Amino acid sequence: MNASALAAASATPTPAWRAVCTRDDLVADSGVVVLLDGQQIALFYVPAADGNPLYAIENRDPKSGANVIGRGLVGHLGGSLVVASPLYKQHFRLADGSCVQYPEQQLRTWQARFNGDTIEIA
C-alpha cells in the first residue's frame, strides 16, 4: 500500500456502533422501532435475506410525515426487498431507502449488525 492509499484509508471514519435493542426484541419479517439520539429508526429483521438480515431505515413516511414505516409490510418488488408504507402504500427498498414509485422520496438508512445478541446501528 502506498503512502497516499494509507492516508486515505486512515482518513475514512470508522462507524460508531451503538446498541439499540436485543435479538429477543426482533420479530422475523417485520419491523420494530428504536430511538437513537431522538431519531426514530425502523429496524427490520429478514432472516431469509441474502447477506445481512438486518435493515435500519428512517421511520418517518416522507409523504405523510407520520412515523409509520416500522409498521409496514415487508416483501419483494422488482427484485428488491421492500417495505410498504402503511398509509400511502409506496414501497421503499430496505437496502438503500429509495422509493420504487416516487424517486424523489428517500428514507435515510443506517448500517445494522448483530453483536452477539445485541443489535447495533451505525
Automatic annotation (TrEMBL):
CDD domains: Rieske_NirD (cd03529). It comes from the Bacteria. Keywords: 2Fe-2S, Iron, Iron-sulfur, Metal-binding, Nitrate assimilation, Oxidoreductase. Residues 18-121 form the Rieske domain. Pfam families: Rieske_2 (PF13806). GO terms for molecular function: 2 iron, 2 sulfur cluster binding; metal ion binding; nitrite reductase [NAD(P)H] activity. Signal peptide: none annotated. The keyword Iron applies. The keyword Flavoprotein does not apply. Gene3D superfamilies: Rieske [2Fe-2S] iron-sulphur domain (2.102.10.10). One of its GO terms (biological process) is nitrate assimilation. This is Nitrite reductase.
